[in-house]
Every structure is written in C-alpha cells, then in structure tokens.
Design goal:
392 residues; alpha/beta; 13 helices; 39% helix; MoaB/Mog_dom; CinA; CinA_KH
Amino acid sequence: MQAELIAIGTELTLGTTVDTNSAWLARTLATVGVEVQRVTLVADDIGAITEVIAAAWQRSPLVLCTGGLGPTADDLTREAVAQATQRPLEFHQDLFDGIAARFRSFGRTMSESNRQQAFVPMGARPVPNARGTAPSFIIDEGSRALMVFPGVPSEMKFLVETELLPFLRNERELKSVLLVRSIWLSGTSEAEAGEIIADLMQASYPTVGISAKAAQYEVRISAQGEDPAQVEADIEACAAEVERRLERFLMDRDGLAAHVLRRLTNRSASVAIYEGLRGAPIYNALRSAKPDLVQALRGVTIHPLDQAVDRDAAESLAIAGANTVRNNWQASYGIAAVPAQVGADGFTDVCIVLVGKDLQRSFTRRVELKSDDALGFIATAALDLIRRSLEA
C-alpha cells in the first residue's frame, strides 16, 4: 500500500515548527509495508487544505492528516475533510461527553469552543483521544481510507499505535514488511557514487537511492515483501554488492567523526587540531562523536587569522599549525584548517593539512563561508583526509 501524508499548520509552512510528525509516521508505516509517496505541508487556510486533501483522496489508497483538530478558529481540518470528501459534519454527543470528561479530570473548565471538536464528517468512524481533547476519525471506503490525527506528537503517536496500525493489520490485512538499510560514504561525490552503482539504482527491486549532506553520503536500500526472511536476504545481498563496489568510500554508521576516532583508537593513535576558523569545524565534529572515542583527540588550538592571506600563505600556516599542535600535544597526527582570503566570487580556499611521522598531505576545499553548510564541508574534508591516510 502507498500513502500520502498531509501536515497542517501555518507554523509548519512558516518554518517556526519542524514537521517531525511526518518523518515518524513514514518510519512507522514502513513497519507494516506502507510506503509514503508524498508529504505535503499546508497552512491554516480552508481553501488550501481542502484542495490538498481532495487531490490526495482521489489518487491515494491511504491519506493521513495531522494537525488542525483543536478548538480555535484556525483549526480547519475537520471542515476541510468534510468539503474534500463531500461529507457534511455531524455532531457526536459521545465525543463531546468524552472531551468534557477530560477537562474535568484536568480540573479545568471546558470552553464553548471545544464543542467543535465533537464534529466529524458524516459516516466517518470517530476515534476518541485518550491522551488529549482532540478526537480523531477515520473515513473508510474499503478501497481507500483517510485518517486524521492531532498535531501534538505524543497524541498522534498514541493514536497511530493504538488505532491506525491495528486498522491496517486487521482490516486491511497488511502483512508485508518494508526494510531499509543505510550505507554511509565519504571521500566521493554523489555523482561518482551514483555512477558506480547506477545499475542497482535503476533496478526495481530492491530500491536503491543516494542522499547527500555536507559531503557525506547515505546509500539507502529498501525492500518490501510478505516474507521477512526473504526481504532481509534481498537487502543483505544488495548491500553486500554496494559495499563491494564502494569499499574505498565506506564509513561507520555512526558517522565520519566516529569512524575516524575509532580507527585512531584501534591503532592506539591520536590527533591534535589547529583551527584557523572561529567556528572550529574539525574540533566540533570530533567532540560530537561518542564519548568513549574522544580520548583519541589530544587537544585543539583555535587561532583565527588577524588578517586575510593568500592561498600560498594559508597553506604555509596550515603546515606550521599542524606540526605545532602535533608536537605540543604529542599526538600521532596533526590536522590544520586555515582559510585564505575571500575570492571575488565570494568563495574561500580553505587549506587543510595533515602531518604525521613521515607524512604530510594537503587538500584545499573551496567553500562559501557564509553558507550554513560551510563548516560541515570543511570538517568532512579534513576528517576524510585522516580517514584515507589511516586506510592507505
């Protein structure tokens, strides 16, 4: 079964609140073999909500909406669902009594506006909310279903686990499972990795895709079927082939920083850092790794430049800085990152140097330092330089 998710609320479309509900729902639905095809955010506007729900209701066998079930004037999901499905709203006394009981249990007086929460579209199955005051409901037409849940994450999760999943398993008899395996890469590019596994990405089963963040890459492999053992075997076979082809770029599931620190720890080696950027990207990346691994980090010197320098000078400063911290902290390796002056195009050459016993390697990462991802790109480049040196 395929599904669409609709998250409703102006706070989501403005970006003041992050839509974590849809991510959780997608992961949870995968456990019963439901694949999410589309996620839509829509503001608190009756016309926009109605349009989005109506379109989803026409094309998808399962539509899940979150948010907009409160008692205020901007809680419009009930009315929008009623219009989109052409089912007028009906008042349910039992739902209203349940809401009133919840308020009594809180020791609070219910407002008249809470009455609107007891309305659901005609023919819909009301679902009382034992964790809050906003009831849910299900429209079930056999071949398709639409379910509406509160936007409060704890209430939504409770109702999904106690109502949605049993509905899908028992009434839709969903028995398949959807498994996902991730393989993490660095030291490559999305294009290069994609070319190496292009035939696997074009295959219909298992499904293989790549996503990128700050020059680190996730290869996701997903497979679905009714035999969990066979699905697991299919996933593992595909993963083994991906890992074989991309072996030189593989890193730990915990991330590149943990991967590097673990390799250093296994070799009884250590690293010291010289940061020429105030944001200290390498240090911040390493200190975010697992606490038991950070012992491989001997120390850090943060020394932003007083004035801009050209690329050659930046590289010389990086070489000197890497050697200095290695000697001062008596580390196996010294790593330094020093920026050159900003170019006419707004980009900066950041010179990265790794030194060790009989070792000196340099790399330049060109970044736009004003970018939100700039420090991540620098940290990844520096850590990957260490990774490749350790695994050479």
